[in-house]
Each structure stands twice: as structure tokens, then as C-alpha cells.
Design brief:
Layout: H1 7-20, E1 29-30, E2 46-51, E3 56-60, E4 66-67, H2 72-84, H3 105-109, H4 120-131, H5 136-151, E5 157-158, H6 160-168, H7 171-182, H8 190-201, E6 203-205, H9 207-213, H10 215-218, H11 233-246, H12 252-258, E7 263-265, E8 270-275, E9 279-284, E10 287-288, H13 295-308
Helix pairs in contact: 1-13, 2-4, 4-7, 4-8, 5-8, 5-9, 6-8, 7-8
Bound molecules: glutamic acid (GLU).
The site of glutamic acid has 11 residues, from loops.
Length: 313
């Protein structure tokens, strides 16, 4: 049974959990393979909980925007599923990869079909699907518009400096896309796919905005605050399943073991998790462990799940 908490109690539980992992902040390394990400202050630490009733609890730097990076893959997947439905699964698998997020090894054995939509290769194929029938600019506008819709916040934007920085250093992602193109699993030019991909990874959002924008996944695909049906109930369940199995790179099993909630992390140091029927939680701390997940963020989520007794298992 997942417990609900009174608003004041929720704030206290969040503070207690985050205070208990404060000394983990700064442990690990800030992502530096995208030069613009290396400039972030490693001491930042924020967390936000938003319940399906709209109660909000914030901690630390919860309202400061950061680069959401791979968390954006959940938005692009949701949009692509709404666009082409189950056809998407002919181009991307839905199995945990057990390999690094940017690995190329599995792609050769599996003939250009990425393991899942949350590794880089999978997200590049998803981006290619989003580009079908539209220009780069309208595709970017569609992604941004979707995020405005689910967050209720039209101020959210691409950080052009981060997008440029990633595009200039995107050799690994370009290789993945070219490799998939050799198996006919990328239709558009690799340059166009990378333009859109690097932009959606470069969306800037705060923990509070992220928690708000994932709420539809905690309530059967319907945004509990705006009452808008964003995806069908079945699709929301499937997206949550994929996050549970594949949301944290090759440490997805470890994350499920420690936190027990479906979620997605990004190399900007953010992680969002969904507590079905109850709430969403977003955390941010830029220093990453060796798998690319926020070190203090993972510890904070483990502590929050323990304090709130929120767990789907
Ligand atoms: N834009 C990053 C990349 O493609 C995303 C990585 C991540 O957050 O996992 O390498």
C-alpha cells in the first residue's frame, strides 16, 4: 500500500531525507564530455515532490533550471508513441541494455535495432520518427510545445549553448545514427536527427518543473491538475515499465533495488521518478557515479522512498 501524507508532513519527510544525504553532494564527477555541462556548480542540490492533488514540497535548489539531458527521452518517446503507436516497436526494442547509454556494441549484433528507447541509439531512432513529415524547426517546436503542455509552463526553453556544445562533440551519437542508417533504421539525414536530438537533450528545467511535467504518468496518462488525457492508460503503464527497466543506464537494476520506483535520469544530474496514483519526485545534483547517474540524487531518492514509504513493489 502506498501511503499518502499531509502537506506539512510531506515537507518534513522531504527535508529529513535530503538532509540525511547532504554529505553525498559533490561525490562523483560532473559530466564533462559535453563541454557546456562541465561548467555547472557541483555543489547544487535540489528536490521537489508534487502530489496528484497538487501539493508541492521543495528542498534546496528545487527551482533552479538545469540541463535535463536524457530525461527528455521520456517526452520524445511519449510524443512518438502518440504519433505512430505500436509501430514504434518495430524500430526500437524494450529490453534493458546492460550496456552504457552510448554503447555501440549491441547494435551490430541486433542489426541496427536499439535495445530500448532510453539508450542513446533508441532515442535517436525515436527522434527520427518524430521528424517524419516535418522540418527540424517544427519538430523542435512540437517537442517544446509538448513540454509546455505537460508542465503548464510556457517559459521552458532549449539552452542553445548546451545544444551547440553537444552538437560540436556529437561524434559518438553520429556514429550510432550512421550505423543504424546502414540498417535502414534512420530515414532522415544524421545531421537533422542530431539537431533535434541535441536540442531536446538541452532543455532546461528545474526539479519543480520536471516533477510537474511527469505527473500525467502517475495518474493513468491523465494530468491530474489540468485533467488533460496526455496518453492512454495502457501507454502510461508501458512508459512506466520501460522507465523501471531501462531508466538508469546499465545501473537500472540497482536503481530499482534501491528506490523501487520507475524513473529516468540524465547526465545533467537530474532524476525524476513516478509514484503511481500518488506523486512524482525530481532531484538534481550534478556529480555522477560511474554509471552516469547522479550520486547524491540516487541517494536522496532512496532516502525519500524510505521516509515516505513510497514503493511500487
Ligand atoms: N545528450 C546526452 C548524450 O547523448 C544525453 C546523455 C544522458 O543524459 O544520458 O550523450
Amino acid at each position: 500500500m502506498t501511503r499518502r501524507h499531509e502537506p506539512n508532513e510531506l515537507k518534513k519527510l522531504l527535508s529529513k531525507a535530503c538532509d540525511s544525504v547532504r554529505n553525498e553532494v559533490g561525490v562523483g564527477k560532473v559530466a564533462s564530455y559535453i563541454p557546456a555541462l562541465a561548467r555547472v556548480n557541483p555543489e547544487k542540490f535540489g528536490a521537489a515532490i508534487i502530489t496528484v492533488d497538487g501539493e508541492t514540497a521543495l528542498y534546496g535548489d528545487a527551482q533552479e533550471a538545469f540541463s535535463i539531458q536524457s530525461i527528455s527521452k521520456v517526452f520524445s518517446l511519449t510524443l512518438a508513441l502518440n504519433k505512430v503507436g505500436d509501430h514504434l516497436w518495430t524500430r526500437v526494442g524494450r529490453e534493458p541494455s546492460g550496456n552504457a547509454f552510448n554503447s555501440i556494441v549491441q547494435l551490430e549484433k541486433e542489426r541496427g535495432i536499439p535495445r530500448n528507447p532510453l539508450v542513446n541509439a533508441g532515442a535517436l531512432a525515436v527522434t527520427d520518427i518524430l521528424l517524419q513529415g516535418q522540418s527540424i524547426e517544427s519538430c523542435k517546436a512540437q517537442l517544446r510545445g509538448f513540454i509546455h503542455r505537460v508542465s503548464g509552463d510556457p517559459s521552458i526553453h532549449f539552452d542553445e549553448e548546451v545544444a551547440r556544445s553537444e552538437l560540436e562533440t556529437a561524434n559518438r551519437n553520429a556514429s550510432l545514427a550512421h550505423f543504424m542508417k546502414s540498417f535502414n533504421n534512420i530515414e532522415h539525414s544524421v545531421e537533422d536527427v542530431l539537431q533535434v536530438y541535441c536540442h531536446h537533450c538541452a532543455i532546461s528545467m528545474s526539479c519543480e518543473q520536471l516533477a510537474r511535467s511527469f505527473l500525467f504518468l502517475s495518474q493513468n496518462g491523465q494530468d491530474p491538475l489540468s485533467r488533460e488525457q496526455i496518453v492512454s492508460e495502457q501507454r502510461a503503464r508501458r512508459i512506466n515499465s520501460i522507465m523501471m527497466l531501462c531508466g538508469h543506464y546499465d545501473a537500472s537494476g540497482d536503481f530499482a533495488f534501491r528506490v523501487g520506483l520507475p524513473g529516468k535520469s540524465g547526465v545533467g544530474g537530474g532524476i525524476v521518478v513516478v509514484v503511481p496514483d500518488v506523486a512524482t519526485i525530481a532531484v538534481w545534483s550534478p556529480c555522477l557515479n560511474s554509471n552516469g547517474n547522479s550520486h547524491a540524487g540516487s541517494a536522496a531518492l532512496e532516502a525519500i522512498a524510505r521516509e515516505t514509504q513510497w514503493n511500487i513493489l
